[in-house]
Every structure is written in structure tokens, then in C-alpha cells.
UniProtKB/TrEMBL annotation:
SUPFAM superfamilies: MetI-like
Protein name: ABC transporter permease
Membrane topology: Multi-pass membrane protein
A biological process from GO: transmembrane transport
Family statement drawn from the similarity comment of this UniProt entry: Belongs to the binding-protein-dependent transport system permease family.
Keyword Isomerase (UniProt): no
Lineage: Bacteria, Pseudomonadati, Pseudomonadota, Alphaproteobacteria, Hyphomicrobiales
UniProtKB keywords: Cell inner membrane, Cell membrane, Membrane, Transmembrane, Transmembrane helix, Transport
Domain ABC transmembrane type-1: 70-261
Main location: membrane
GO cellular component: plasma membrane
Amino acid sequence: MIRDTGPGSRLWRMAVWAVTLLFCLNLLAMIAAVVLNSFATRWLGTWLPLAFTTRWYASAWDEFQLGDVLVVTLQVVFLVVLLSGLLGVTAAYALARRDFPGRRMVMLVFLLPLLVPPITYGIPLATVLYRAGLAGTLWGVVLANLVPSIPFVVLVMIPFIEQIDPRIEAAARVFGAGTGQLFLRVLLPLLIPGILAALLLVLVRTIAMFELTFLVAGPTSQTLVVALYYAVFAAGVRAGQSIDAMAVVYMALTLVWLIVALRFVNPTQIVARAKRQEA
């Protein structure tokens, strides 16, 4: 392959690098401003705050009831991850191993929540949950988050399941393994990397999911991202440092889980596995 080294190509590469650098600097500057302000005693008209303190974190913890919000967030995340794993892996196995009429249509239905904006189906979904009396409750938030989470698990797990030779399962059944034994002793050890990858990414996605959670959450079922929104836009006067402290807690929580997720999964391996299967 011959690489183009002409003036036009060099200018194009320089422009791409310049735009990328500008974007990164802008993003880092915004994050740095939020973090610095969360520790600032006063910051007006100067490059750096006049002094630093940690009292805004204690203030945010009490004012916004961060303890209760974090408990709700962890409960929602745990239930969404658990149910997504159970339902998503089962559905992925059926789609990967069974060829039946309408299979492509079923796949399309699973992919729709990932292809369309959440607000598009979030409002009708919230209406149904309100009529069922589930909106404003913890289980209402969980059900709303399951709509995009289960298809995400299905999409991630199908390539992992398809790479397992069906003859392994046939051999296990020949030696007397039942369905439960086949899954626990044969399939599960082979699928652990894919399951961890899918569930960790669902975890990060659920923490960051705003639209669906905002539409169905109540006063006692708000996750951290929704509580942060209300802290910014609710009526009343609040110290900007307290809100920024809450934002830093949210960023740190999401970043930690994102790093853990990327430790277990390479985002390109899903595409690579799918390409190998097509070949």
C-alpha cells in the first residue's frame, strides 16, 4: 500500500491533529475548571482560586443527600446488571444457536433501542410505567434501564457464543450432561470473558443513563446523574462549589467503572469476532 505524502495529504493530517488537540484541550480545561472550583473557597476573576478547601464535599453530601442517592444508584445498577445478564445471555444463546423464521426481525427488535435516541421511546415507556404504578419507584427505574441494557448484552454476547464449537455441547450431552450442567460446567467457563465485558459495560451505561431514569424516577429513586441535574436546575440558591463537588463525585464514580470495564474488554474485539464469524 502506497501512502500519499503530497502537500494536500499533509495539510489534511495536520488539520485532523489540530482539531483533535483542540477538542482534548477544551475537554481537559472544562474538567479541570469543575475540579478546581469544587475545592475553591472563592474563585472570581483570577486564574486560580484564592484558597482551597474540602468543605464543599461535606456540604454536598448533606445538602443533596448523596449517601441515599449513591445507595439508590448502586441498587439500580446491581439489579439492572443482574437481570440484563440473566435475560440477555439467555436470549443471545437462543439467537446464536437457533435458526428460526423471523430471526432477523427479532434481531432488529433487539437492536432498535440501541439505534434510536432513548427519549424517542422513553416518553411512551414512562407513560406505560405511570399507568402501571411503577413510575417513581426503584423497580420502575430498573425496568426502564433494562430496555436498552438487555439488547446491549445480546449484541455483545452473540459473537462470543458463536465462536464456541457446537460439537463441544454435543459431546457434553453424549456424556450425560443436562442443561444445567452443560451451562455451568461447559458454557459458563468459556463465556466468562464475554459476560464480564457485557455486564461491566452495562454497569457504566446504567450509571450514565439520564433520559430514561429522569422520566421515571421519583424523589426516592433518583440515581446520581438525575440528582445532579436537579441540583443544578432546581429552584433556590446553591453554592456552585457544592454542585461541582457533586459533579466530581459522579465523574469519579463513572471513570472508575469505565477503567475497570476497559480492563476486561477491548472495544474492537467485538467487531473483530463478528468479522471472523462472517469470514
